[in-house]
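Forum > Structural Biology > Help requests

Title: Can anyone predict the 3D structure of Phosphopentomutase?

Hi all, first post here. I have the sequence for Phosphopentomutase but no way to get a structure on my laptop. I'd be grateful if someone could post the structure tokens.
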Amino acid sequence: MQKIDKRGIVMKYKRIFGIVLDSVGTGAAPDADKFDDVGSDTLGHVGEFFDGKLNIPNLQKLGISNLRDQPIKGVAPAEKPLAYYGKMEEVSAGKDSMDGHWEMMGLPVTHALSLFPNGFPDEIIDKLKEFSGRDIIVNKPYSGTEVIHDYGEEQMKNGELIVYTSGDSVLQIAAHEDVIPLDELYKICEYARSLVNEPPYVIGRIIARPYVGPDKDHFTRTANRRDFTLEPTGETDLDRLQNAGFEVIGIGKINDIFSGHGITKGYHNESNHDGMNHVLHVMNEDFTGFAFTNLVDFDAMYGHRRNPKGFGEALEDFDKQLGEVMANLKDDDLIMMTADHGNDPGFRGTDHTREMVPLLAYSPSFAQTGQSLGVRSPFSDFGATVLDNFGVQNVSGKSFLSELK
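Reply #1:
Sure, ran it for you. Structure tokens for Phosphopentomutase below:
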């Protein structure tokens, strides 16, 4: 099957839908020892927690267990998988969302970003105080939910900024929405972004973390989170597609991760469910190009909180909507699913885990049962395949388009 667009470009698929299941890793990567993540396995440990009762029939049919060395407990390998399946191995220096997504789009992060295991230096904190006119509390690594439980009431009373970090290259600022309006919080985060774009401090993401609630036992983080990501340090596959005249639709935090570069149209997600609704909405539009989606709840709501029950339930909810998406795919559509890193809810700590990530590619036009795509490295093979389909030259990774029969 080939499509020829008005520019004379020969395409196998008119539309490609890329969906990133944020943090849904599938076993420790070969270099996991460098990150103290040996033994991590997000999908495996979620399956074990559910004791064989994890209900993900659509992912199962596509081949989610076929790509693993050991099947997910209770999720048998498909006899005739609908999708081509494999795993991807990261080469970027870190295990953050930015690293994973940039690498997928042909821009591996080769230099490690700044980490702050002891909190941020005075020169950053003092500038934030001066700019905001507010005091700063905490300033050390902390769980996002625990930090508002422990310091949220103090922040509400005195109007300070809760500044904290994690094992990743992030500076997070939490504030109650009734105390510090969103516009003010975003402006402070934008200023913080301007401070850490070049050595000696290069931070991957500044994250606004607004929350609501009357007291520490009822505080909840809201969907008004916003990521202020380091500007891409070079051209990405999204830029290449857009420059070639194709539409690039970003759903979820894609727009934040790429700082708007290479995005034709963007949709903000309130949740995974909302994100999949956006995918279904976009599927009803007539466009030629790439729709790139990030579903962050797996990571933000369940991985970092080490909640395997919630993680598995989120996979089950996603699987139901995946069935709707599959039913609405046209013969000249391709869907590719993967992840950007792991965040094993059955592992120690609260940070991302260095894992292999699943790779599933499916179109209703496939003429045969899905076959193994093996282990792909770098993640850039994902973007290279998208570019190959639209006749755009890539600079990183190797396309597997020709393997999709």
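The chain is about 30% helix and 20% strand. The chain has two domains: 3-110+231-403, 122-229.
Shout if anything looks off.
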